[in-house]
Specification:
The chain contains three helices and eleven strands, in the order βββαββαββββββα. With 196 residues, the chain is mainly beta.
């Protein structure tokens, strides 16, 4: 090695998925109008592949064990926000005791939005139905009163205004997936669009 050679400079910043940049903001991106869902009519419905349904009202959901994940979130539009703080119910809690042979789930939202996920990505402490963001009620523009949070995938998989999950034996693409987005959406592999 030549005297004085120190190699390539390394970034002192956090490791980001490829193609992402840091933001301090929380940009609002939606495909349609923001639903306004009164808490007294909100419910979350988990339906199995056999049609068995499990239902929770807002108060029942609030009565379940709550977790406070602090996670990084990554949007397909290239921004990353670090260390976001949430509160909600783990999908492990909601799926506990559910008899299923399903391998996939289709999330449904108030307003008609859907997105598909492998069921394994909703288990193991990796996904929540969240109602609180940074210590306050989740704002409607960010998916309140409750949204799905699956932070290891691009944020479109964390369905805003979530109202339920349908468990499926076979994969069934959702709204953005049928419009050309990647079926899985791993930000570390830049799975933005079909074929990535």
């Amino acid at each position: 090695m030549s005297p004085g050679f120190q190699g390539r400079r390394r970034s002192s910043g956090p490791a980001l998925p490829p193609g992402q940049y840091l933001t301090e903001d929380f940009p609002v991106l939606s495909a349609g109008p923001t639903p306004r869902v009164p808490l007294d009519t909100w419910e979350f419905v988990l339906s199995t592949e056999t049609g068995t349904e499990f239902r929770w009202t807002w108060d029942e959901m609030a009565g379940l064990p709550q977790e406070t994940p602090i996670v990084d979130i990554h949007c397909v539009t290239h921004w990353t926000k670090l260390g976001t703080s949430w509160q909600g119910v783990s999908l492990d809690t909601l799926l506990d005791g559910v008899d299923t042979t399903a391998r996939y789930a289709l999330a449904h939202s108030y307003g008609g939005y859907t997105t598909n996920l492998p069921l394994d990505d909703l288990r193991g402490g990796r996904a929540w139905v969240v109602h609180t963001y940074e210590g306050g009620p989740l704002p409607a523009e960010h998916g309140g009163p409750a949204r799905l949070l699956v932070p290891h995938l691009y944020l479109w998989k964390s369905a805003k205004w979530v109202r339920g999950l349908r468990l499926l034996v076979d994969d069934n693409p959702g709204f953005w997936e049928t419009a050309g987005y990647h079926d899985y959406g791993d930000p570390w592999r830049e799975q933005r669009y079909a074929g990535d």
